[in-house]
Design brief:
With 157 residues, the protein is an alpha+beta fold. It is built from 2 helices and 8 strands, in the order αβββββββαβ. The strands form 2 sheets. The protein has a 5-stranded antiparallel β-sheet with strand order 1-2-3-6-7, with helices on both faces. A 3-stranded antiparallel β-sheet has the order 4-5-8. 33% of the residues are buried.
Length: 157
């Protein structure tokens, strides 16, 4: 397992359409392990493969409430019409935040690291995390959808 460099705004990788994973093998599993290690080292709740320069449809998430996910080729679908607004940040946009409107409830289907199909129903903050990370796979950053996007003011002093 290794830490990977997190790509930041301006890196072309963050704006590319990611390719589906065709075969889940040991290299993909090692990549997922590296993604978790990198995410934890950076104190993140999610990380998408393009954030470390890999243009594949892979996302890892830990909501720190007992839910840990490795998603390969995820598809997201909104459930119902209810929306929510939350303040988001991103490991690829350090020092910035913005308010983003997202679905309150979503269904995610994907493959896990064993190649099994999984389905997750997520609500509230977990739904926000899924939407944010899966957007990365289409080259979309949260700032593209944000209101009041800007530098986080220091709380010191």
């Amino acid at each position: 397992m290794a830490l990977r460099k997190i790509r930041t705004e301006g890196d072309d990788c963050l704006r590319l359409q990611c390719k589906p994973v065709k075969e889940i093998n040991n290299n993909i599993r090692m990549l997922i392990d590296d993604m978790f290690d990198t995410m934890y080292e950076a104190n993140g709740v999610g990380l998408a493969a393009p954030q470390i320069g890999i243009v594949k449809q892979i996302v890892v998430i830990d909501d720190y409430e007992g839910n840990v996910f490795a998603l390969i080729n995820p598809k997201l679908e909104q459930i119902g019409d209810e929306m929510q607004t939350s303040t988001e940040g991103c490991l690829s946009l350090p020092g910035y935040s913005g308010n983003v409107q997202r679905p309150k409830k979503v269904r995610v289907t994907a493959l896990n690291e064993d190649g099994d199909e999984i389905e997750i129903i997520a609500e509230d903050m977990l739904a926000v995390i899924f939407c944010h990370e899966i957007d990365h796979l289409s080259g979309v950053l949260y700032k593209d959808k944000a209101e009041n996007y800007g530098k986080i003011e220091s709380q010191e002093g």
